Automatic annotation (TrEMBL), chains A, B:
Gene Ontology MF terms in the entry: monooxygenase activity
Keyword annotations from UniProtKB, A to Z: Monooxygenase, Oxidoreductase
Annotated source species: Phormidesmis priestleyi ULC007
Domain of life: Bacteria
Pfam families per the UniProt record, alphabetical: ABM
Entry protein name: Antibiotic biosynthesis monooxygenase
PROSITE patterns given in the database record: ABM (PS51725)
InterPro entries named in the record: ABM_dom, Dimeric_a/b-barrel
Domain spans labelled ABM: 21-110
Amino acid sequence: MTTTITSDRIVTTIAQDQELITLINIFKVEPENQQQLIDLLIDATEEVMCKLPGFISANVHKSLDGTRVTNYAQWRSIDDFRAIFNTPEATAHMPAIGKIAESEPTLYEVSYMKQA
Amino acid sequence: MTTTITSDRIVTTIAQDQELITLINIFKVEPENQQQLIDLLIDATEEVMCKLPGFISANVHKSLDGTRVTNYAQWRSIDDFRAIFNTPEATAHMPAIGKIAESEPTLYEVSYMKQA
């Protein structure tokens, strides 16, 4: 049993009993373009992705060494995720991102978890 | 304000106000070795990692295409994470993992989050 009361705080939950798929998308980028890439991912998420059916969360991570940006995202289903690529408003954001970063989007399920 | 009451459920939380660093470690693996790799990561976590100072969580993800295993892990600090490599009990697990997988461990901070 879990009860969460949250006010003004965005929290993403990783758990094994959630009905969702996880997209972990690693972007390789030159350090001088890392912040621009983050800004482009924020724009794409705010303007389009978060409004698409099945979107659950996006969690953009900035590597300390400047060479990576990783989006840990959750979607309701594989089909919802795949539909992005047939959504012109979504694909319109991809060329600008592709100009400064190589990405490796991969779909996952949670296999094992351990807490301290 | 967040209140979480949890019973018998492991949940990892991603948030921007947590004092921790995130390790996202992508392992590339042949699909026939994917489950063996997951088992090795579980052994290393259960036997050593979870007992080290600063360990917060490990979250092992299995790619649907069989070619990746990704550990989304949280540590209290960079120094706690780096100390792994000077801990013989921890490094003892690495050669077996290295035999079947290439890894790319990268440290991150959470930069942006969006919920549906």
